[in-house]
Design brief:
This protein has 629 residues and is mainly beta. It is built from five helices and 34 strands.
């Protein structure tokens, strides 16, 4: 009898081979005239980098503490990705963009649209908390966000926080946090239309408009992507058809500035994804994935020192397969009341938060809730920065869980900053882990303790950072032998321990007219009980890139490289290391029109990222975008 688990539950437990796939189709997404990155949350920052790099110290980010903070005051390890970076990345999906970020590896069991995992500092995909415009995305069947179903075409800005943040966000933020922001309208009217084509029958089209007039700002976008794909499997027992995908997505963001101190905002992102995969000979297997993220926000500045934010969110993740029928749906409802009080160098925050989860995965129809109180204190004066957070979550199923963090930063010389932090985090068992036939109602939350040290230097468009970390996880949930659950095939249990330890180097440097950038991760994600490496994660991986202006063109090249990995938790199958060479270029071909081209895996290297799964080979994409200045 074959265990019937959800499609990414296998990814989380490493029960089947997954597919790690950096930059599948070279899609330089339609143009170098992308709009400037908009405000992130209430008070975001503007990033005008042509390519992925560390943001300047004058920028503002919101992910580290859920409040706007200048990067110069930040102790956490954060990367910012703006829309222009996304468009020149040539990435097919969100995970492909993230694969270029320091500290991140991805996995994928097939082409675009199939089950995708993101390992942040080597931690499992379910250990990264994901938000879209403040709306929490998660699956209570598989654990973690469905990365493959978050449409890249609707994303304007991404903030990646490396390191646990349980004291700020509660459950799940054991490896880090990824915040995704859609576009926000600015004064005037800014329409755009784009089309693009690539090999594997790839076609893309997008259109939208944003703007602001008086007290109202708005941004709307719609996109359609489809590809015939390629045969994702390399073994004769699987269907040799091409495994393509179709995706239709839309986003909307509307704000009303009621007066100088009060703002109302509504956000919506939705995607309908249909993609192919192979599970047997002669079948046209399909994944059908739908999601939506809806948020309502009210922000009020009551006094120069005190402001509040009230947010109500709703998200849905529905996954279905055909012709072999399987259906699971997760609904998340969130309520947040956040308070901020600033006085000189002091910032005090207090938040009340409620999260309601529901899983419909026949015969499972279960729900639970988590109520939390979070307190934070920040101090910035002169060369010193201190950040302390505590949080208590009360879960309707397993009881209470407390988390805390303490971080300190010291600017010991111009452009130089040293940081140190410790923190705890946890991940509550999913409803599937507890109530499926393979589940155990007495499962404990997975918990972690993290410590890290960092050193950073930044000046103008150049920067360098090195961060050393060690994150130990207790009560890790894995699929093991039969035990206390009803199934005789095996059960979920808190029987494992893991350690994610490593050093991340990242840098960006301007040499004349050439902008250089790169990152290198040296890590050792392993099972503490067996001493073996965790599956699909390399001890060494990194990127190196350069771009410049030449005869009216922006041209660039990059290398993505990874060391060998093991395909299984038993470390029985070795996947060889690889290096991919990518090229891209863009230019303005007429007033308001931009041409972008990208070539990925230029050497057409044959490589394997998961046993029995194919990789795309050389891919090319060309796009044109119209966006009036």
């Amino acid at each position: 009898m074959k265990i019937r688990t959800p499609r990414a539950c296998l990814a989380a437990s490493i029960a089947k081979p997954l597919r790690l796939r950096p930059a599948l189709v070279a899609l330089a997404v339609l143009g170098a005239c992308a709009a400037q990155a908009q405000q992130a949350g209430a008070n975001g920052s503007v990033l005008l980098a042509q390519n992925l790099r560390a943001p300047s110290l004058s920028e503002t980010v919101v992910t580290a503490t859920r409040t706007p903070q200048p990067l110069s005051d930040l102790v956490a390890d954060v990367t910012v990705i703006d829309r222009q970076t996304i468009e020149t990345s040539g990435a097919t999906g969100l995970a492909d963009v993230l694969a270029r970020v320091p500290g991140i590896e991805i996995s994928r069991n097939g082409g675009p649209g199939t089950t995708t995992g993101v390992f942040l500092r080597g931690a499992e995909s379910r250990f990264t908390a994901v938000y879209i415009d403040g709306v929490r995305m998660d699956s209570q069947s598989t654990g973690g966000a469905a990365w493959e179903s978050i449409p890249l075409a609707q994303i304007d800005r991404i903030e990646v926080l490396r390191g646990p943040a349980g004291a700020v966000y509660g459950s799940d933020a054991m490896g880090g946090v990824v915040q995704i922001f859609t576009k926000r309208g600015e004064q005037g009217v800014a329409p755009y239309v784009g089309i693009g084509f690539g090999n594997h029958g790839t076609r893309k089209a997008e259109a939208g408009v944003s703007g602001a007039s008086g007290t109202i700002d708005y941004a709307f976008g719609i996109a359609r992507e489809e590809s015939k794909g390629f045969n994702a499997r390399t073994i004769a027992t699987q269907n040799p058809d091409r495994d393509g995908y179709e995706s239709t997505s839309a986003s909307a963001r509307v704000g009303l500035q009621v007066n100088a101190t009060h703002r109302l905002e509504a956000t919506l992102l939705a995607n309908d994804l249909d993609s192919g995969y192979d599970s047997g000979l002669g079948k046209d297997d399909r994944n059908q994935h739908q999601l939506h993220a809806l948020g309502l926000n009210w922000q009020a500045q009551w006094t120069p020192q005190y402001k509040t934010r009230v947010q109500i969110t709703d998200s849905r993740d529905e996954y279905q397969t055909t012709p072999a029928f399987y259906l699971t749906e997760t609904r998340l409802r969130g309520y947040l009341f956040q308070n901020e009080w600033r006085q000189g160098p002091h910032l005090v925050t207090a938040a009340l938060e409620r999260r309601e989860d529901r899983l419909d995965n026949a015969p499972i129809d279960r729900k639970r809730s988590q109520d939390a109180l979070a307190l934070g204190y920040g101090y910035t004066a002169g060369a010193h920065t201190l950040q302390a957070n505590v949080r208590h979550d009360s879960d309707s199923e397993f009881g209470g869980k407390g988390t805390g963090s303490l971080a300190y930063g010291y600017t010991f010389a111009p452009q130089w900053r040293a940081t140190a932090s410790v923190g705890t985090a946890f991940r509550a068992p999913t409803l599937y882990h507890r109530f499926s036939e393979y589940g155990t109602g007495s499962l404990n939350p997975e918990s972690s303790r993290n410590a890290e040290l960092g050193l950073r230097w930044a000046q103008a468009s150049s920067s360098f950072s090195v961060t050393a970390y060690r994150n130990r996880v207790q009560d890790l949930i894995v699929f093991g032998p039969a035990g206390r659950c009803p199934s005789t095939q095996g059960c979920y249990a808190n029987v494992a321990r893991a350690e994610y330890k490593g050093v991340t180097f990242a840098g960006s440097y301007r040499l004349g007219s050439v902008q250089l950038r790169g990152s290198l991760d040296l890590q050792n994600p392993r099972d503490l009980d067996t001493g073996k490496m965790l599956a699909r994660r390399a001890k060494r991986h990194g990127t190196l890139g350069a771009d410049t202006q030449l005869a009216g063109w922006t041209v660039g090249a990059e290398v993505q490289a990874s060391g060998r990995r093991f395909d299984t938790v038993a470390n029985t199958f070795v996947l060889g290391g690889y290096s991919l060479f990518n090229l891209y270029a863009s230019t303005r071909i007429a007033r308001d029109f931009t041409l972008t081209a990208r070539l990925d895996n230029a050497a057409d290297k044959t490589y394997e990222l998961a046993r029995t799964y194919a990789t795309p080979g050389r891919t090319v994409y060309v796009g044109v975008k119209w966006a009036p200045l």
